[in-house]
Amino acid sequence: MGSMSAVVVAVLCAFAMHAGLLVTTAQLDPTFYDDTCPDLYDTVFDVISNASLTDPRIGASLLRLHFHDCFVQGCDASVLLNSTDTIDSEQGAIGNINSIRGLDVVNDIKTAVEDSCPGTVSCADILAIAAEVGSVLGGGPSWDVLLGRRDSLNANLTLANQSLPSPFFTLDLLKASFAAQGLNTTDLVTLSGAHTFGRARCSVFNNRLSNFNNTGNPDPTLNTTYLAILSGICPQNATVVNITNLDLTTPDQFDNNYYSNLQQLNGLLQSDQELFSTPGADTVDLVNSFSSDQSVFFDNFIASIIKMGNIGVLTGTDGEIRTQCNFVNSENSGLLLAGVASNDSKEKLVAQSK
Q1: For residue 303, how far is the Cα from the chain centroid?
Q2: What is this enzyme's catalytic activity, as reactions (predicted)?
Q3: Which residues are annotated as a binding site for Ca(2+)?
Q4: pLDDT tens, 132-157?
Q5: What secondary structure does DSSP assign to 261-279, as a single string?
Q6: How many helices and strands (H and E) does the chain possess?
Q7: Which of 4, 58, 198, 312 has a 20 to 30 A CA-CA distance from 141?
Q8: Coil, strand, or helix at residue 238?
Q9: More confident residue, 343 or 166
Q10: Which domains can be identified in the chain, with CATH numbers?
Q11: Helices (H), 207-353
């Protein structure tokens, strides 16, 4: 990750690069496709519901994908773009490589939507709807998804490396990362609650298990019983890539147990536990409030994710409606002309989940 000073510089650079994206005057509308694609929500729901039968993680993965899209040049589906001669894919960023999932499911959704409403629905809007469906399938809140986004014509790998918050961040760095997107401390604590379901690799938390901050000791804010469990899952010098639940109590349920875990020092990631264990932090009261009342957490989550979904959106004639989420239309046309999009070669066009 580099030195802490380098991380601070990256966060500040991200803030500067995002300065023009924080506030959007675009008017997104939940009824945007009512006339042009009336069955859109049902189509998205059906594809994700079917995927969840074999992949219980998919809801969490799609919610994370929306988050990782919006934090890099706005909610424009740039995270979905594959590398080409002119595009360096954001999928290779530190916060994405070998970790973002659900790209194949998004492509399945796009195929189904194109069959019924060709050239109408943006990939950025599909990501926003998929995030809501992921929450609902996990037992979490539902909300009216604001729609009308258009898709970007480019991606920004450099910005992705600067903008995506790290699991190793302190609270100050987390706040700076969210502030760069126009999101406040309440949004930070609320959206972090999405870690109530899903999985994480050992590599994003094993720094806490034995030599935290080069002390030679485990992270003192990690419950010792939980430490023993995690050390068994992620032994030192392991050669296999293991994963574990972000929420050790209800790993596939979207609920408020994430915050109760923090109170018991059972947050998996450093960036999670920082919300409760940073001395004197203003985030502690929010954690306590969300832990004691799930409805309060759900109400705040709805407000924060709708707010996040408005970051830097493209509307009107900006951007485009991609016919395939992995490529801009001009690139996709070239591939089609070259005969690449035959049935035998479709897998080459699909960014598969890791």
Answers
A1: 17
A2: 2 a phenolic donor + H2O2 = 2 a phenolic radical donor + 2 H2O
A3: 69, 72, 74, 76, 78, 90, 196, 247, 250, 255
A4: 999 999 999 999 999 999 999 999 99
A5: HHHTT--SSHHHHHHHHST
A6: 14, 2
A7: 312
A8: coil
A9: 166
A10: 27-163+310-349 (1.10.520.10), 171-305 (1.10.420.10)
A11: 224-233, 257-263, 270-277, 283-292, 294-308, 329-337
pLDDT beyond 50 at 179: yes
pLDDT tens column, 301-320? 999 999 999 999 999 999 99
**By the 8 A CB rule, do 61 and 353 touch?**
yes
Q: Select from 268, 306, 259 the least CA-distant residue to 147.
A: 306
Residues ≥6 apart with Cβ < 8 Å to 346: none
pLDDT for 343 beyond 50:
no
Q: Which residues are annotated as a binding site for heme b?
A: 195
- CB-based contact 321:76 (threshold 8 Å): no
| Predicted TM-score (pTM) above 0.90 | no
- Distance from C-alpha of 139 to C-alpha of 122, rounded to nearest angstrom: 26
pLDDT tens-digit readout, 232-269: 999 987 667 899 999 999 999 999 999 999 999 999 99
Binding site for substrate: what residues are annotated? Answer: 165
Give the mean pLDDT of 90-113: 96
State residue 236's pLDDT score: 84
Which of the residues 18, 57, 66, 68 is marked catalytic? Answer: 68
What is the per-residue burial (b if ≥16 Cβ within 10 Å, else e) of 104-129? bbbbbbbebbeeebeeebbbbbbbbb
DSSP strand E in the chain: where? 199-201, 243-245
- Token match 């994003």: residue? 204
Q: Which two tokens stand for residue 315?
A: 């509307």
Residue 288, both tokens: 């306590």
| Sign for the pseudo-dihedral over CA of 9, 14, 17, 20 | negative
- The answer to whether residue 18 is catalytic is no
Q: Is the pLDDT of residue 325 over 50?
A: yes
